[in-house]
Amino acid sequence: MKLEFGQRADLADIRRIGIPRALLYYRYGIAWRTFFTELGLEVVLDAPSDRGTLEVGDRLSVDECCLASKLFLGHVAALVDQGVDAVFVPSLMGYGRFDTFCTKFQALPDLAENAFIVAGRRVRVVSFRIDELAGETEEAAYLGLAARFGVTRKEARRAYKAAIAAQRDYDDAMAREQEKLVRSISKLPAAERPLTILLAAHPYVSHDPFVGGVVEDALREQGACVLFADEADKARSLKKSYEFSHSIPWIVNRELIGATLLLHEHIDGIVLMSAYPCGPDSMCDDAIERCIKGKPILTLTVDAQAGTAGVETRVESFIDILAYQKKGGYLHA
Amino acid sequence: MRSFQSQPEQSAGEPKVKNPAEEHGRIVMRDGAPRPLFFTGKRPKRRRHSRHKVAFFHFRYYEPAFKYFTEQVLDADFVPTPTPTRATIKRGEEMSADYVCTPFKHIIGDYAAALEQGADTLVQVTGFCRLNYYGELQEMILRDAGYEHFQMLNFSYVATGKIRDYVAYCKKVVNPNLSIPHGVKNLLGAYRMVEHIDTFRDRYLANAGFETEPGSFARVRKEFLSAMNAAKSNGDIEDGFRRAMDALDALPTNKPEDPVRVGIVGEYYTAQDPTSCLNLEQKLLDMGVELSNAMSISAFNLHYNAQAARESIAEYSVHDMGPTSTFNIAAAKRFAKAGYDGLVHIKSAGCTPEIDVMPVLQRLSRDYHIPVLFLTFDTQTSDAGLDTRLEAFYDMIAMRKVRS
What we know:
Chain A is an alpha/beta fold. Chain A is built from twelve helices and ten strands. In chain A, helix 1 packs antiparallel against helix 6, helix 5 packs across helix 6 and helix 8 (212-221) runs parallel beside helix 12.
């Protein structure tokens, strides 16, 4: 998008902008919120996902959509019901040849708009596109969007800087926190160390209370210490992932794999979790199961029908097996 | 007079005494190319590398083009992948993860079959979406399954996307002796062959539904493909194509003035490949339909104007929704505007970009009053359900046509 400051402020009438609490909100949400707040807009977030969100989203989507995408449309509908002026849905292609997102994230703005029209409803979508391979950089995307809200170039730049900084600070804080946790566990004597489980899942799966929340709770209930692969240091994870694969094209999966490799010696088991049917995970989980050896891996798939039923039982038995193993196998239990 | 010429079985320099009768004159000619007199210790590059046996996966009727590319461009041996059978598909299904997209399963089944035929180099292309990662994961799975003596020519590894790097990569993996001028010339031939195969397909789909002599169109296609398969030079390609097109046009048909017309759009591999979509095109042709399939290598890779396509569907989508999304929406809109009677949208199970296209097509269907049949194909091999659906769809659009 070309920068047209002072010329094409077609979004200047928007006062309340909604951000759906789904998908990449869990990765870039802080940047987006900061950005719109800096532009002087009121940012509206809807409630975290629950069964109702899924049902609404399910009605709006094609049957074969993945669970996360159905939840997303549910969140958009919730925002529309709250009466926001517009909903922010970016189209994210990627940052490079092997740093792309699932095509779902490219399609989101058009998908939302079309799905609502098919359902006989309307939603006003505000969007930008990041596709660094095609020359549409992140900075240009943010600034171009700001221009359409009728702010000056200076204000736009400030909002962008603040947004990126806020997100980076948050990510760094989470990574530091997790590193501290890992260090403190490794300092404990071996007998007192709790079972450490790495939850490797897309952030919108692991941090969504309706999807990953159940697994996290179940793990904690069993006395395990939970680490999140998506809360490790992103740059280091990404670099590390090239030791695993040359050609995985998805940045989020790369970070998850890199984090798994980085944390490999500190963990007792890995829980891979995906929302059915996740395209990137369908291949990466296979690769992880084949190539990340030496640690037990539990693969969980959550779909729209069964939801998280049965997850607790599976997590319990997984933890039981790990606990027995740690004590030296069934014979020494 | 003594001759000091050395012979291969003779050590150098040792004089050879000849029969005095031969001194007066003789004629000698031996078979083979000229060779240096002495072994210099250097062998030409082509002697140092054994020829590779290259295999592709199955993809519609493009095998002659793959063969031509392998033999005339890469200058290697081509191993034809056996025609996929139920067993091949099942093998592929067993080797892959459950909900990976279906082309992955078909292709890995083909690879296993090709390796058993003695191939030692497998070619995988690159693209958007999951296709990027196909090659690496398939190589890993095949090695885990016990196939060891093979290498992948996986274009995903060429991260830069520059022609020069692709050539260097082919040289490294398949044939270090690859001749660039020769290769470029024949690459153009392969390019033309792909175009011809697609042109032939389009003509075939338009008319084969109205053949008066059953099987005549399929016969010409068979002849065309075998001519392409036998092509050794660019001239052979043009020649075979012209003859096949003439033969196709000469076939008698009973095409009505205003036939029922159906357009096919959908996911790149499944929409084209008859094995993947259970021979859907032929089934529709048998009902007496004029078909157009939007998807082909020429249409999507060689002659695609992305900018124009994007602009033509501006009211439906602002950004590119996925690798083939804009192309498919634009094609569907073109069909709808041209007054087609129905659209068939084909995808493999779990194809994210095509799932995202579906709401757009639903909207388009409503705007242009054109029925759309959405079909999803997995590795199932029974086509009873497909037949019922196609018949119902045909009845519906044929009846609508009569009424209007």
